[in-house]
Amino acid sequence: MNRKILLVSIFIATFMTSVETTVVTTALPAIISDLHGLSIQSWVFAIYLLTTAITTPIYGKLSDGIGRKPIFLTGLFLFTLGSFLCGFATNMYFLVIFRALQGIGAGAIRPITFTIIADMFSFQERSRVMALNNTAWGISALIGPLLGGFIVDRINWHWVFFINVPLGILVFLLILFEFKEEFNKNNILKVDHIGIGLLTMVLLSILLSLQSFGNITPNFIVIISGVLVFLISLYLFIKVEKQSVDPLIPLDMFKSRTFTVQVITALLMSGMQIGFQIYFPMWIQSIYQMPSSVAGLAITPSPVMWLLTSFFTGMLIKRFAPKFITMTVVIIQILFYLILVFNNVQMPVIWFYIISGITGAGLGIVITMNTVIAQELVDDKSVGTASSMVTLGITLGQTVMTGIFGLIFNVSINRNLQSYPEVSASNLNRAISFSGTKLTDVTDINRILLNSFHNVYVVVIVIFTLLLLLNLWDNKNSVIR
What we know:
The chain is an all-alpha fold.
C-alpha cells in the first residue's frame, strides 16, 4: 500500500467534497431566484445531508465486509454522477432529487477517509495527519467562493456543479489503478436491514415535519403524523439495535460518557456550522446588495482558520481534558454570535469575516479533537466504527439543523410578510440574490429579512448553551492518554 498515493487521493477527495459546500453556498441565492425556490431552499442542503447520514453507517458496514476500496469507488462514482445531473436541473425539485444522489455518494467518502487514517496512523500521529488533510479545506475555502461567485456572475449557477466532475474522475482513476488494498475477504458481511429502514424513517419523518411546519400554510396533519412516526421509529430503532448481534450503530459504545459527549458535541457544532455557511452569504447579498462573488468570501476565513487551529489540537489534548477545551471554545463563540442577534443593517461587513474566522478556529479544534478522542476511547477493532459514529454525528447535526434553521427562517419570513402586505413574495425572492435591480420596497424587505436572520442566530446561541451543559455533564476531568 503506497501511503503517498493514498494520502493524495484522500486529499483530493476531501477537497472535492469541501469545495462543493463553499461553491453551492455561494450559488444558493442565485439558484433560489432562478428557480423560485425560497420556500424549499433548505432542502437543497437538507436532502444532501439526509442521504449522507443514512448511507454513512451502511457504507461503514459494507467496507468491513468487502473492503475500503470498492466502497470508496462506489461513493465517488455516485457523487460525481449526482454533481453532473445537478448541473442540468431545470427546477428546484429536480435539483433536490439530484442532490440526494450526491449525498448517497458522499456518505462513503468522509467516514472511510477517517477510518483509513485511523488504520494507518497511531494516536499520536492522527491529529497531525488530519490537520494536514484539512489543508484541502483551506484551499477550497480560498478557491470555492471566488470560483463559485465568478461562475454565477459570468456564466450561470449550473456550472458550479460541473466542477466536481473532472475531480471525481481523477480520484476514481487514481484509487482504481494505484491503491492496492490488502483486505481479508473471509470476513462475513452482515447488514442490519431493519436498522437501516428504521434509521431512514427516523430522519425522514423529522425532516418532513420540520419542512411542513415552515410552509406558508402548514399541514398540521403531516406535522403531527411525522412527529409520531419519528418517536415510534426512534424507539424501535433503539430497541432493535440493542438486540441485534451486529447492529448498524453499536449502542454499547455510548456507555462511556466521554465518548457520548464527543459524538454529540460534533453533532451540535456541525449543526451550528450550517447556520453561517448558508445564511452568511444570503445575508450579505440580500441586505448589503453585494454580488455573490463578494458574499461568498464571507465564509472563506472559516476553513482557513479551521486548518490553522487543527494543527494545535494534538498539543491541547496532551494538556487539557476534552470538556475544558470545548467549553472555552464555546464561550468565545457565544460572545461573537451575540453580535449577529442584536445588530442592524449598518453593521460593517467586516464583522461577518471576523465571526467566520472565529467559527472556523473553534471547529478546527473541537471537531478534530472529537474524532481523535472517540477513536482512542475504543479498542483497536472498533476504531473504524468510532470514526463512523463521529462522522454520523456530524452529518446528523447538519441534517437536522438545516431543517430547523430553514424552519425558523421560513416561519419568520411568512409571519413578517403578513405584517408587510405591500411586499410581494416575488420581490423578496429577487432581493435574496443581488442582480443590480433596485427594489422600491427595499426598507420593508430588509426588515423582514433581518428579523429572520436574527431568529436563526438566536437558535445558534441555544445550541452553544446546550454544548456548555453537555460538556459539564462529562465526568472526565483529566487528560486522555
